[in-house]
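Exercise 3.2. Students should predict the tertiary structure of the chain below and write it as structure tokens, then compare their answer with the key that follows.

Predict this chain's 3D structure.
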Amino acid sequence: MKAENFSRTDRRKAWNREQIVSGALEAFSELGYMKTTVNDITSRADVGHGTFYHYFKNKQDLLSKLVDDLADKVDDYVQPKNMQLTVYERMKYEAQRILEYYVNNSSILLALKEALMVDRQFEEKWLKISESLFKRIERDIKGSIQKGYCHDINVDVTIRALTCMFEGYGHHLMVQPVTPAEIQEVAQSLTDLCYKAVFKE
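Answer key:
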């Protein structure tokens, strides 16, 4: 009986938290992070203020936890499942997954970009996500340079340029409607651009 009650309570807590998160993402998308209040979140989540504060200290704490959860999932999201891919195929796969990561998590990432303008802790969180997203491409390029597959390039400058290019295009895709086919087309174009610029024929 106790186990059953615990399970029911646990499910209710998970449901409440999920409702709050959904309400927050909806409010962030509609109003922007800065203009969103706790009341905006609770009204969309259909929960009381007391319930909100049981899970989060404030909207900053809520966003911080969402971003931390998102950062923890980067490697699993981008990691190719097929380890037999060529360098080009792996770059293309990772490019598409990076762009999908931006689009599928646009509510959180756009809120994060807004928050980092006024709160230094969020700047550090953005850098953590950015570094996680692109360390695989960096690893591919550095490994290929050691094998003599690449042009004579400045690795740090090249990685920074590719990072800025993907971040810029990722932001572009986050703020407009986009289809999976369009994401795939962009990933193909960016991969071709990167591959031809970095790798020898």
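Discussion points: The mean pLDDT is 89. The first helix runs from residue 2 to 31.
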